Structures are given as C-alpha cells and as structure tokens.
Amino acid sequence: MTVTATLGAIRSTTPRVAGSNPISTYSGLLNQVRDAGLLRRSRLFYFSVFGTLVVALGGAITGFVLLGDSWWQLLIAAALGVIFTQFAFLGHEASHRQVFESGKANDRVGRALVSGVVGMSYSWWMTKHTRHHANPNTVGKDPDLAVDTFAFLEEDAAVAHGFFGFLTRHQGKLFFPMLTLEGINLHVKSIGHIFGKGKVDGRALEIVLILARILVVVAAIFAVLPVGLAFAFLGVQLAVFGVYLGAAFAPNHIGMTVIPEGQKMDYLNKQVRTARNVRGGFGMTLLMGGLNFQTEHHLFPNMARPHLARARLMVRDTCKAEGIPYTETSLARALEIVQQHMSRVGLYQGAAFECAVANDYRRF
Q1: How far apart are CA 252 and CA 11, in angstroms?
Q2: In the chain, what are the helix, strand and coil shares in percent, each to the nearest 5?
C-alpha cells in the first residue's frame, strides 16, 4: 500500500499487527534483498559518477578562468553549487560503506570528498548522521529534530521567544528562503567542530583539508575577479549549495511520524514509518543522489544507489502484507508538505492539534 504523507508530524503509538513478528519480517526481507544480490557493491557505478563529476568540476574551473571579469561568472558559481552537492552525495554514500567493502577505504574517500572537496567536517557529519539513522524522528535521540534556527517540534516552537520566536512563527514562509544560508551554516559548524574541545576523529587531517580547500577557493576567486563580483560569486555558490542540499534532505523525514521520547518501536516500523520516498525514476535518483529512496536507504544503509529501486519493490510488498504504511509522493508534493508542516509547528502555541488524517494513522 502506498500512501502520501499527512500534514504535520504524527505522534506515534507502538504498532501491533495481528499475527506479525516485525523482527522475523525484517529478517526475511533482509534475506530476500541479500539473495537478490542487492547488497553487493557497485564500484563501477561510483567510479563513473566520480569521473563525471571530476570532468564537470574541471569544465567549471576552465570556464571560470576563461570568462574572467564577467557577470556570467555567476552561472559558473551556480554550477559549482550543484557539483559540490553531488560530491556531498558521494561522500554521504561512502560514509555508509556503499562504495567499498573496506570501512577504512570508505572513510578515506568520504573524508577526502566531504572535507577536501566540499569543505565540511566528515567527522561532524558522521557523528550526527549515525545518531539520526539509529533513531530517526525520535524525540531526544535524533539530532535532526533539535532546534537549529527553526523548530521541528511543537514543544520547541511553543517556548521560542524573542528574535527566534519571530523566526519560528514565520518559519513556514522562511524555511526554503533560509536554505540559501545553509551552505554558510554547514561550513561554520564544521570549523567549530574541528577546532572544538570534543573528540574529533582525524582532527589534524580535517583541519588541513578544510582550511586548504577554503584558502584555495577563496584565493582563486579573489585573484581572478574584482572584489564585488568575487563576493557575489561566493554568495551564489553557497546559496545554490545550501538550497540544493537542503531541498534534497528536507523531504526525507520532515512531516513524517515522530516517535515520542522513551517509546520503543521495532526496527522495521521505526525506519519505514518515519521516512518518505520521492517518485521520479532514474532522473530523480540522479538529482537527489539516491535520497529519493529514503525508506530503503534507512532499512539497508550500506546498499549502493543502483540497487535501491529494486529493493523498493520488495519493501513495498512487505509493507503491504504487514499493514505498514509506506509513504511515497512527488517531489513537489513532498516540499509542499515540508513547508506546511514547518508553518503549522511554527504557529503552535501550546494548544492541542489534531487533524482527521493524523487520527486515522494514529490507530495503527
């Protein structure tokens, strides 16, 4: 059964399906996926993607040098925003052990791509993202639900005050425009992490990679372009990067089932009920770096991107047989749901909110 997501996050109660054993059901699904060869690595695919991105990056750099002092450079800046996001997708997949069998090889490649090419801290990303995968949309455990300029939970919105209270009340309208600043936010957090007091795996290497990347990019831009155009170039590149990356990750879980703090839920239900897939075929998979198969990615985090589409059919059939809602919608509808959810949460002032559709899904 395929359903579209409801407005707002649905507070879940532990589902109980008559005659069902979620642990054995997931085990059977995992065996089915493994027997179909869907957990094997696809190095040729990833080498092809990496090679294509290197060529694209080389083309953008060549165009940058040839154009010189021209406002057409802003098109190059936008292209770089897209290219860096695609490199971030590859780094994300390496962090999930999707590229190589060896964990160390994946980490080396992931760190090189995320820190050396994109300019973000790989260790910060790994720490945060690993916690998210273990407990998606779980209050008190998923760091993606924590307040970060905006509130993702009603209880956080209800206590927001001052300037952040103003942002929270208007976050539905501001959410996507504010993604233009997400690129800067990610770089700032990465620098704060690598120079922070906490434990940082590979701290020295990340400091070298990130600072070298920033210095090379900034020096090249200001060496070729006049100051005003140089700042505009950086602004466009960071804005496109932030919007693209944010719009790719936002549809995954925002507005989906939220698991209350302390509630237990089996792995299969927890991963399926909190994730949303985005329809669109191969083009969407290319655009979103495989994140359009969010449900399958969460169920099988080390599954390579080319196998997710086939796994989707198996997961969908299993969910139908077990009575587990499987959420899938178009990208436009998913982004609309995200905006509506953020608006509803931002306007929450402590009053109980229920919608008829949410009540239907509350009764698992």
Answers
A1: 17
A2: 65, 5, 30
Residues 6 or more apart whose CB falls under 8 angstroms from that of 94 comprise 100, 106, 107, 109, 110, 113
pTM of the model: 0.89
Token digits for 50? 């990496």
Q: Scan for tokens 């208007």, then name that residue.
A: 170
Helices 227-249 and 171-178: crossing angle, nearest 10°? 120
Residue with tokens 């020295």: 204
Quote the DSSP letter at residue 327: E
Which residue's entry shows tokens 């099988």?
300
- Residues 6+ positions from 292 with CB-CB distance below 8 Å: 277, 278, 279, 280, 284, 285, 331
pLDDT in tens, 235-265: 999 999 999 999 999 999 999 999 999 999 9
Question: Tell me, what amino acid is at 152?
Answer: F
Per the CB < 8 A criterion, the answer to whether 276 and 328 are in contact is yes
Q: Which tokens sit at 111?
A: 């760190």
